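YM 10:42: Anoctamin sequence, as discussed on the call
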Amino acid sequence: MSHKAWMKTVPTENCDVLMTFPDTTDDHTLLWLLNHIRLGIPELIVQVRHHKHTRVYAFFVTATYESLLRGADEIGLRKPVKAEFGGGMRSFSCEEDYIYENIENELYFFTSQERQNIIRYWLENLRAKQGESLHNIHFLEGQPIIPELAARGVIQQVFPLHEQRILKRLMRSWVQAVCEAQPLDDICDYFGVKIAMYFAWLGFYTSAMVYPAVFGSILYTFTESDQTSQDISCVVFAIFNVIWATLFLEEWKRRGAEFAYKWGTLDTPPESIEEPRPQFRGIKRISPVTSVEEFYYPPWKRLLFQCLVSLPVCLACLSLVFLLMLGCFQLQEFVLSIQELPRIIRFLPKIILAIIVTACDELYKKVAYWLNDMGAW
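YM 10:58: structure's back
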């Protein structure tokens, strides 16, 4: 290790988010980003570590409890309120922190998922000033630094860390449990509301499928072998499925609303009024609706890009796929028409097609990412 990087290295006790760098990263890049994080986000605690075997540097990122409280206030994190103050869920406020449940307990007030969301919010909103640059990367004013460095490959990964203690508990109560209810509250606390809501729906759907399965089995058992009985059974089962599907949807609406109220997402604001994603670029202006400063990208420019770039590129990709598949089919017919060829040669067109599909998949994935980033400004 170099002397400069070693001076910034300290032992790590706690870590919520890990940021890793390629093994070719120089000290100037590490120190530049480290200084920007520490100056731009003083709430974070960043510790530098170096893996001696892989020679990879990493930033171990966490925050103090007081900083997390301020971050929860900034992003409007919803937390349960004590019963004596009305109960329910409310956006966190530092000015009234005494009304929230478990506020006195630093270890259990925030779940690991909530801590990581706050830290990710800070990292993604570290923005560049006018004229800032790193090597050959020139930032626009107000452009998010970390997403841009991740897109350029300067940052290898930014990811949250698991808590083995909670994972082991979920393994016992969820994965390894047999004929027991899912620990949905624990899943929500650890993975978040979206994941918990998915598994809540999946469990409800699986349970609801018992009714058509049992009714269909009974109907099949007592149905005669003649055509008339089979037709009547089909009509009865179809009517049953219509009634079952209607009841299933209505019951899930109620159950989903219960979970949403319980987990504090029933009255969350719609996505249309949320903050734009950090990767969004545009010109600064005063919003005519909210009268606050925002980034704005003219719709006509986006439409022009979609018509002159996105549409031709997509049509070209489709044409290329069509021509390649047509060529493989022609080659297949040609190979099958020659009886003297060895048996293994007959599989050659299929092998070529599989290779083409794999290569096109990787190519089109990169094209899709580029079109999405360029067209969504």
